[in-house]
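A student in our group prepared the protein record below, which I am reviewing. This is what I was given:
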Amino acid sequence: MRAAAVQLNSTDDKDRNLATADRLTRAAAAEGAELVVLPEKFNLLTGEGGMRAGAEPLDGPALTWAGDAARELSIDLVAGSIAERRSGRERVSNTSVHFGPDGEIQAVYRKIHMFDVVVEGVEYRESATEERGEEIVLSEARGVPLGLSVCYDLRFPELYRILAVRGARAIAVPAAFTRPTGLAHWDLLVRARAVENQAFVVAAGQVGWWLPGRETFGASMIVDPWGDVLARAPDARAGAEETFVCADLDLARQDEIRERLPSLAGRVDEAYRWPTPAPA
C-alpha cells in the first residue's frame, strides 16, 4: 500500500486551509497514494476561543469535504483532526476520522491525551476547551489494520502498544508539534513508536506560524517497522513548506521483521503489573 503524509500551515482561514488540503490530497493521490493522512486541526488552527467558535459536527463542511474527496479519489483518507462540536457537551473534542474509498466513515477517534504543558514560557492548556476521548480505535484501510492517534498521544507508548497488540500494522499520527518540542523529540518519538511496535507510522504535521509566538515544526514523515525513515518533509528550520511525502508500505518486509525479531510475540503478559495508583 502506498501512503502519503500531507503537511499544512493551517491558520484561522478555513476556506484557505481546506483549499490547500484539497490540492495536496489530490496531488498525493495522483502519485499513487492509496492512504492519505492529514495533520491535526487541518481545517482550522487558531487560539482557544477561535477553535471553540469554529468547531464543527461530524457532518460539517470539513468532514463533508473529506468524505467527498475520499470517494472521488478512491482513497482511504485520515482527516487529521478537527475541533468537533457535539450536542450537549460544553467542550469540544479533538477528533480524527478515517474515511474509506467509498466516502463513508470507517472509524472515529477522539484524542485521549490533552496537551497541558509549558514550552519555553508559552502555556498550552487543551483541557480548558477540549474533552479527552476514552476509546482506543483500530480501523482498517484496504485490509491493513490501521491505528488512529493524534499528536501528543505520541508520548504515551501504552496507546500504541495496545494498537499493535490488537493487530495494527500501520498507525496514523496527525500532529501539530511545536517547534521546540519538534526539534527535541519529533523524529525520536515517531521512530520509537514504529520500532517498538514493528509498525509503519504515517505522521502528518503542521508547519509554520499560526499565531504570534506559536510555530509548528513540520517534518511530516513515514517510518517503517525497522525505524527507517522512508520519506520526510522539510521542518521549520528549512522554512514553512506545505507539501506531502509518499512511500510504499512493504507489508512483506514487515512480516520478515516481525518473524526475525519477534519482540511483539515475545511479550510476557503475566509478568506485567501496572502500579495502582500509578504515580506520575
